[in-house]
Amino acid sequence: MADTPDRPRRPGGPPKGKRPGSAHPAKGAPARGKSASSGDRPQRAGDKPSWRKREEGASGRPKRDGQQRGGQPREGHQGDFPKRDAQRGGDRKRDGERRLWTRDGKPARGDASARERETPEDRDPYGTKSVRSRHDAPVIPEDVVPNQLDRVARAQLKTLSKENADEVARHLVMAARLIAEDPELAHRHAVSAGRRAGRIAVVRETLAITAYATGDYALALRELRTYRRISGRDDQLPMMVDSERGLGRPEKALELGRSVPRASLPVEVQVELAIAMSGARLDLGQVDAALVELQIPQLTPDTAFSWSPALFDAYATVLEDLGRADEAQLWFTRSDLATAALSSSDDADDLEIEVFEEEIEDEAEDEAESDTERLDD
Q1: 3-class state of residue 91 by DSSP
Q2: Which intervals of the chain are annotated as region Disordered (predicted)?
């Protein structure tokens, strides 16, 4: 069979001198170890231009910026290696160690050197840690024992180890003991309990209450949200409303107070929420609406419960702002009588104590007579 002359190959076809599926060179191909020069044959489609070949180095690859002949970079240049590493999401150190970064720009978990460069504020922006093995905790007196904690609160600590649960219980006891006389120290005890048991609802609740007592309403609101998420309860909704007020956001406080059906809350929480909502109305200058917020079924003048003194006082305060001084004085007197009646009972939270109108009227008359006598003198 006669040899067919070489034909110009189509663009994208197999290179000349190599037949598909054959290990032997085709006819007319240069011998192994030799290369055909550009002058041996005419330029065909797909071949590199002559100017491109002249710029290739000894390795046959195009030169990069700042690279000498032979493929070695010039002194003072690093080529495009750092750029390529950055495009792949990494960064190469001088010693060859690779540091990984996440999409949000933070160091990956395996990069210990990057974590060491972080400041404590970066790792804990709010100054509270759920669990920390070592920290400076306030001293607890020896007479404080875990059994002094409320039984319901103590039951929530059963998920902890016994040693840790006992220490958390003692801090909670100290927080409850100091909340009235030393709120700052009580808050330190609550923070210590939070560092040991940050996933316990009663711990986050105590931390919120002590923060509220110290005037840190932002922390109180944040901890109350956490407590609400952990426990699924709305019993601290009035304090959340008051915290919004403390942050200067009465409109948001009213919106938060209306976010939960009033009937779904315990009676005591309903009363506290009404007082907080009335305060938010006063912050907005809506005095008439503040009085309406307090006109709830629990505002009964002839009976006293544990929430009655605070409700009577709030109602009397709004009456004073409306200029109704006589009615305000009457409700202040009822508050005093309710307080005295509740303090004389050993189980004031469970008993309904009657406060008769005659006692209030007699006391008001006595005060009026004493004022008249002082004027006569």
Answers
A1: strand
A2: 1-136
Query: Which sign, positive or negative, has the C-alpha torsion 147, 153, 159, 165?
Result: negative
- Residue count of the chain, please give it: 377
Tracing tokens 């978990």 back to the chain, one arrives at 109
| Pair 314, 275: CB distance under 8 Å | yes
Query: What's at 185, amino acid-wise?
Result: L
Region for residue 96 given its phi and psi (left: phi exceeds 0; alpha: psi -120 to 50; beta: otherwise): left
Axis-axis angle for helices 237-246, 201-213 (nearest 10): 40
- The helix/strand/coil state of 76 is coil
Name the strand (E) or helix (H) holding 99. strand 98-100
Dist. CA 187–CA 89, nearest whole Å: 44
Q: How far apart are CA 209 and CA 4, in angstroms?
A: 97
Angle (CA) 143 144 145, round 5° = 110
Residue 306 token pair: 């544990």
Beta bridge partners of 98: 92
CA-CA distance, 241 to 282, in Å (whole number)? 13
Full-model pTM: 0.58
pLDDT at 109: 55
Name the residue ranges covered by the structural domains of the chain: 119-233
- Name the helix (H) or strand (E) containing 332: helix 325-343
| CATH architecture of residue range(s) 119-233 | Alpha Horseshoe (1.25)
CA-to-CA dists, residue 180 to 193, 213, 245, angstroms: 18, 8, 21
Cα dihedral 269, 272, 274, 278 in deg (nearest 10): -160
| Segment 76-106, tens digit of pLDDT | 545 444 444 444 444 444 444 444 445 555 5
62/64 Cα distance (integer angstroms): 7
* Token reading at 141: 């007196």
Instruction: Provide the CA 318 distance to its chain's centre, in angstroms.
Output: 36
In three-state secondary structure terms, 189 is helix
